[in-house]
Amino acid sequence: MAKRKRSSLPDADTTVLTPKTLPVNVASVDSNMMPPQPVRRTSSRRASTQVPPADIDTNPVTNDKIKDGKDALRASPDAEEPGAGRKKRKTAVTKVKKETEDVEVEEPAKPVMPATPIKKAVKHDDVDREDPEAEGEEDADPEELKEALSRPPPVNSSYLPLPWKGRIGYACLNTYLRASNPPVFTSRTCRIASILEHRHPLKDPTQPEHATKNRPDKDQSADVARGQAYVEALGLANARDIPKMLRWNDRYGIKFMRLSSEMFPFASHDVYGYKLAPFASEALSKAGRVAAELGHRLTTHPGQFTQLGSPRKEVITASIRDLDYHCELLGLLKLPEQQDRDAVMILHMGGVFGDKAATIERFKENYHKLPQKVKDRLVLENDDVCYSVHDLLPVCEELNIPLVLDYHHHNIVFDADKIREGTLDIMDLYPRIKATWTKKGITQKMHYSEPTPSAITGRQRRKHNPRVATLPPCAADMDLMIEAKDKEQAVFELMRTFKLPGFDTFNDIVPYTRNDENKPWKAPKKPKKAPKKKKSKAAEEEAEEEVEDAEPEAQPPPVIPDEEVGMGGPEGRVYWPPGMEEWLRPKKREVKARDPEKAKTTAERAAARRAEKAAWQAAQEAGNAAAVTDTPASASASASKIADGDPGLNLEKTKSVYNMAKPKKPARAPPSGGKKKSAKSVPTPSESELSELSEEGTEQDVDMSDMTDAEEIAAPVAKGKRSAPTRATNGRSVKRKAVNYAEGDED
């Protein structure tokens, strides 16, 4: 049995008692203290706070606290979150961290998905509801592949519902509007931690919230109403984007859309839930007026955890609370009678919990307990794990519930004893399925999607293809929901393929370019004017003519009205080819590959400098300049030994090697103003001059600092004290006089 959850927040209509049975004002409780345990609410969602919604930044580009709803990003709610790991187990105990303590919650069994069509003998205790769209999960064991490949081929109908007269729609998210600036979407959400954080006031309440400079101050007391105002602001931002999405759809021939269940974050939560009417009535009614004006159909699809057949009471309570939230959302749209009747809530039967028949009976029992307003909107859909059309159709006929036929799910889960895989045999059930809709006066709808081309096994086939290639054999006036990850682009693909109404309203986007946004504009810099000089009258007249003929100054682009921002521009450039979603955003700056030597990291360069410095210090400390016998290449090896602390290193030798390896200073450059002086040529002395020089060389010292080795050996040096060169007799002149060009006696 699951332990009771705890929370630091009591309900608005709940009195919290301390161990001394004294009432406590939650708003005054220090956020650092352990709060008392609240009483779990058994009634419906609490009323919204009287504090107006907060004025916050709801743009996820500039506020990293705003997240995308996970269900809206998927092809459908039952196609779970991409990237989730695959784990098969019968019972899992998950530690759920609440505000004050960790609580262990026991989850229901997660059965393994069948790879073959459903038969009466197949058990569903091990249905695996982990992510069918996770990447890297396509591998299957050989037995599973062999069994999947041996199944009978599908039998499909060749009928196409053309000319098309119905409505085609997509689910929850518009990829083009989501990538616009500012983004337009209806699935902004957050984490519960953000709600708790925003119960504290900002550090500077007079300034708008900033991600780093002006965050909530947790040192100040928390207020439940302030946190509630934060989450309500997200819901209002979502609701206010609905009219924009509807008008965008209408411009391009789309008349059908599913609203995101995450439009109002945590609205059906048992602790943080709230009613919509007190703060969202006006925004939702405005969206409803636009939908009525454009003849747009709106529906919802509660998540896969809303299950009325569960054996757990807490799951049933949460499911009813979630259905009540969706029903209130659709009711506040205030649609005309028929459109309001067509605004349905699609639901799956859920798991089988070991006994399919018993689960169906529990569903019937709990369905009768639902409010009438929920019953009026509830419809059932066959799924791709447990329940086939043959399982649900009798239930729908008995309880007067419309049945949504999902072709993709039907090709994975069907009763092989009664029907074959494909779209042909299921057409025999069309009259019975349609009767479940007409009996309640609701316009029929169907779901269509396709598996990825490489899918083989049942699990692999659950993964939705980003776009669909054809139309199902439905009625030509059907409301068809396309469940694909490319959302509205999948609808455009069908329009282009079959020339459906609206196919000529859109064009391909220009890669990485948007011409329907107001971008910041800066005037180009003007060239600097040369200093004015006195000109003749003729020159002044010519300059005036040049000024008149010059191009006018650059003007900012025209401002795009708010209602046209993100609408595709006058040419309707809103279509992006398959796989080219990156074209919706500005192109990333390309970094050219650098030379490997130049691409060394800072750490590598720093390590080389440290090794060089260590070698130099070791050479200085040694203080003994030994004869240089090693090559300069050994300097780097010695440096590495010093850096590694080699005890056997000869520091004296290292000093001389390092000094030899040190680079020589470059020659001094000639003065910038003059030419480089060329060396003067020395004339070859005669025999008489040589004899004079040899005699003079015995009387004066010789400066051999600039001589070559041969000259140094040949030059005679006096034993006396060498006199310093004077201004008249500099070093160079002394050298010239002291050089002995005479050949040796042996020669």
From TrEMBL:
<feature type="compositionally biased region" description="Acidic residues">
    <location>
        <begin position="689"/>
        <end position="712"/>
    </location>
</feature>
<dbReference type="GO" id="GO:0016787">
    <property type="term" value="F:hydrolase activity"/>
</dbReference>
<dbReference type="GO" id="GO:0005634">
    <property type="term" value="C:nucleus"/>
</dbReference>
<feature type="compositionally biased region" description="Basic residues">
    <location>
        <begin position="522"/>
        <end position="536"/>
    </location>
</feature>
<keyword id="KW-0227">DNA damage</keyword>
<dbReference type="GO" id="GO:0006289">
    <property type="term" value="P:nucleotide-excision repair"/>
</dbReference>
<dbReference type="InterPro" id="IPR036237">
    <property type="entry name" value="Xyl_isomerase-like_sf"/>
</dbReference>
<feature type="compositionally biased region" description="Basic and acidic residues">
    <location>
        <begin position="64"/>
        <end position="73"/>
    </location>
</feature>
<dbReference type="GO" id="GO:0004519">
    <property type="term" value="F:endonuclease activity"/>
</dbReference>
<feature type="compositionally biased region" description="Basic and acidic residues">
    <location>
        <begin position="592"/>
        <end position="613"/>
    </location>
</feature>
<dbReference type="GO" id="GO:0009411">
    <property type="term" value="P:response to UV"/>
</dbReference>
<feature type="compositionally biased region" description="Acidic residues">
    <location>
        <begin position="541"/>
        <end position="552"/>
    </location>
</feature>
<dbReference type="InterPro" id="IPR004601">
    <property type="entry name" value="UvdE"/>
</dbReference>
<keyword id="KW-0228">DNA excision</keyword>
<feature type="region of interest" description="Disordered">
    <location>
        <begin position="197"/>
        <end position="222"/>
    </location>
</feature>
<feature type="compositionally biased region" description="Low complexity">
    <location>
        <begin position="614"/>
        <end position="642"/>
    </location>
</feature>
<feature type="region of interest" description="Disordered">
    <location>
        <begin position="1"/>
        <end position="160"/>
    </location>
</feature>
<dbReference type="GO" id="GO:0043504">
    <property type="term" value="P:mitochondrial DNA repair"/>
</dbReference>
<dbReference type="GO" id="GO:0005739">
    <property type="term" value="C:mitochondrion"/>
</dbReference>
<feature type="compositionally biased region" description="Acidic residues">
    <location>
        <begin position="128"/>
        <end position="142"/>
    </location>
</feature>
<keyword id="KW-0234">DNA repair</keyword>
<keyword id="KW-0378">Hydrolase</keyword>
<keyword id="KW-0540">Nuclease</keyword>
<protein>
    <submittedName>
        <fullName>UV-damage endonuclease</fullName>
    </submittedName>
</protein>
<dbReference type="Pfam" id="PF03851">
    <property type="entry name" value="UvdE"/>
</dbReference>
<keyword id="KW-0255">Endonuclease</keyword>
<feature type="region of interest" description="Disordered">
    <location>
        <begin position="511"/>
        <end position="747"/>
    </location>
</feature>
<feature type="compositionally biased region" description="Basic and acidic residues">
    <location>
        <begin position="197"/>
        <end position="221"/>
    </location>
</feature>
